[in-house]
Design brief:
- By secondary structure, this protein is an alpha+beta fold.
- The chain has 4 domains: 68 residues; 188 residues, endopeptidase domain like (from Nostoc punctiforme) (endopeptidase fold (from Nostoc punctiforme)), CATH 3.90.1720.10; 151 residues, no CATH class; 76 residues, no CATH class.
- Helix content is 37%, strand content 10%.
- The radius of gyration is 39 Å and the shape is globular.
- The termini are far apart.
Length: 571
């Protein structure tokens, strides 16, 4: 019997599987806050820029038009639309100047129509003088002195404000234009000529008084080459420098060769030297006309052109002030109460400012900052002298400027003197400008900052209602003639020296005939020579009248007559 099978060990009971941890019940998702109902979009305010743009378009329609009396209703309508704007909106009207220019043109048309109906001999004391309501000063003061009135021989229309008018006049009448920097081109030519000839001019006595003649010769040469219009800029420098040297030989005083000056030859010299026929002289003469001189001076603000436009007997101080005044034509607008003592252009000009001075229709409104009439005069004097201390000398405001200037008759007045619309009884209710020359008929020209024309303008003084001239006390009135160091011929000449004068300068039958009648030549003969006609070319039958004044005679003697010991320095 087999042994019994052993009882197997019992299988170990497996450990029970651990009960897993129950999954955590997630926190309930937070109920989102309800989206806020947006506030309704506000109804936008009416777009006022549309009103501004409408006014701008209306003003733009006036640009470049020839204004006649028929345009009055349209211009009045545009003005009304502009005045309906708020001050802030007015400041956004960028072409406002076009409106003021159109109004100025309309006023000129109305004035011309009125003047044509009046007697030109109307007494200066008529009530017409008191009708001007555009008095331009922002100061309150009184004046007590008396000035002499300005008289007129031939009233003409006043020129327009802004530079475009003068530029257009040069182009249309003289086919001429200048680059903005042409004054600096002229200065470079003068400076380089001095350096080339090793000249020092510490006292500023080497003054060029024939730039207009140099311009005329340049244009004559270009016209002979076929040019019909002329642009003066840096590209013309070499040709102008050549003509400058020919027309300005260096001249030494025969008594003191350390004293030198320029020959300052005029077109008469060029005509005779080059035997230019009468029919070909018109171009040369055209570009030394009074109108051309004035326009060239205004447009370039160059002292070289200003000297010729005002005449040689005007001190350099006055030339400097007028040159500074011209430099603001077309560059600064009118601003009631606007002042500046900055040397050079004031950076604040053109910025929008509130008119704070009382007494004007513009008071309290926003305007582009600029100058008023007396502020313009003060700035011109300061910049003419390059000295801010001149503010005290010229005065602030029309009343102060009247007080600080003295009485001068019209006969003794000079370019650079101040000119006022009203007498001392007006106090600060006055308008002031600067005399800057005369027309061919002898009428005074003035430069001033005008409210009605919104800027600096140049034109006939009487037509602009100026009546009183005053002479500032700060001018050092040593004239060009008193400063002149060039050798001059004595009024009594010997026959020998007069024969040489006849040969070297010009041919004159009057002088030649007188020479045959005596051993000496008197001052009467010299006067005859200076005022008789120049002999024409032999093949021509006519004799043209080219009158020689004292300056021209002196120039001729200085630059041609070697036998009276005039010495030209070699390069």
């Amino acid at each position: 019997t087999p042994a019994p099978t052993g009882t197997p060990e019992p299988t170990a009971t497996p450990a029970p599987t651990a009960t897993p941890e129950p999954t955590a019940t997630p926190a309930p998702t937070a109920t989102p806050e309800p989206t806020a109902t947006p506030a309704p979009t506000a109804t936008p305010a009416r777009d006022d820029s549309a009103k501004v743009q409408a006014v701008i378009r209306k003003i733009k329609a006036l640009a470049g038009r020839t204004i006649t009396a028929a345009d009055k209703a349209e211009i009045d309508s545009v003005r009304a639309a502009y005045e309906a704007l708020s001050n802030t909106e007015k400041a956004k009207v960028t072409n406002y100047k076009i409106l003021t220019e159109a109004e100025a043109k309309l006023a000129a048309v109305d004035k011309n129509d009125s003047d044509n109906k009046k007697d030109n001999k109307k007494d200066d004391s008529s009530t017409e003088d008191n009708k001007n309501t555009e008095i331009t000063d922002g100061n309150n003061a009184t004046a007590t002195q008396i000035g002499d009135p300005v008289y007129v021989t031939n009233m003409v229309s006043n020129l327009h404000a802004g530079k475009d008018f003068y530029l257009d006049s040069l182009k249309s009448n003289y086919h001429l234009s200048f680059s903005d920097d042409f004054a600096s081109v002229m200065e470079e030519i003068e400076r380089e000529y001095k350096e080339k000839n090793k000249l020092t001019d510490t006292e500023n006595t080497l003054l060029v008084r024939n730039w207009q003649d140099i311009l005329a010769v340049y244009i004559y040469e270009k016209s002979k080459a076929g040019a019909t219009s002329f642009t003066l800029d840096a590209s013309c420098k070499d040709d102008l420098a050549r003509i400058f040297a020919e027309m300005n030989p260096i001249v030494r005083d025969k008594q003191d060769i350390t004293k030198i000056s320029y020959g300052n030859r005029k077109i008469n010299y060029y005509i005779k030297k080059n035997n230019i026929a009468k029919k070909d002289r018109s171009v040369l003469k055209k570009y030394v006309e009074t109108d051309c001189k004035l326009l060239c001076a205004v447009v370039t603000a160059s002292k070289g052109f200003v000297r010729e436009s005002v005449g040689d007997n005007v001190s350099e101080d006055r030339v400097d002030v007028i040159t500074a005044a011209y430099s603001l034509v077309g560059k600064v607008g009118y601003f009631w109460g606007g002042k500046s003592t900055v040397i050079g252009e004031d950076p604040s000009w053109g910025s929008v400012e509130k008119v704070s001075a009382d007494g004007s229709r513009s008071s309290g409104t926003l305007r582009a900052y600029g100058l008023d009439c007396s502020g313009f005069v003060t700035w011109a004097v300061i910049n003419g002298y390059k000295d801010q201390g001149m503010q005290a000398a010229v005065g602030d405001g029309t009343s102060d400027q009247w007080e600080k200037a003295g009485v001068v008759s019209e006969a003794d007045a000079q370019p650079g003197d101040l000119v006022f619309q009203r007498g001392p009884e007006a106090g600060s209710n006055n308008h002031v400008g600067i005399l800057c020359g005369k027309t061919d008929s002898g009428d005074w020209i003035a430069v001033h900052c005008s409210s009605s024309k919104n800027g600096v303008t140049v034109g006939e003084a009487y037509s602009a209602s100026f009546r009183y001239i005053r002479k500032p006390s700060f001018y050092q009135d040593t004239t060009a003639e008193e400063n002149k160091t060039t050798a001059t011929e004595n009024d009594v000449l010997t026959e020998e020296s007069a024969e040489k004068l006849l040969t070297d300068v010009v041919r004159s039958d009057a002088l030649k005939d007188a020479l045959a009648s005596g051993d000496t030549v008197s001052s009467d003969l010299l006067a005859d020579f200076k005022n008789k006609a120049l002999q024409e070319d032999e093949e021509e039958d006519e004799v043209e009248t080219l009158t020689l004044d004292q300056e021209t005679m002196d120039d001729a003697v200085d630059t041609f007559d070697d036998d009276v010991e005039t010495l030209e320095m070699e390069n």
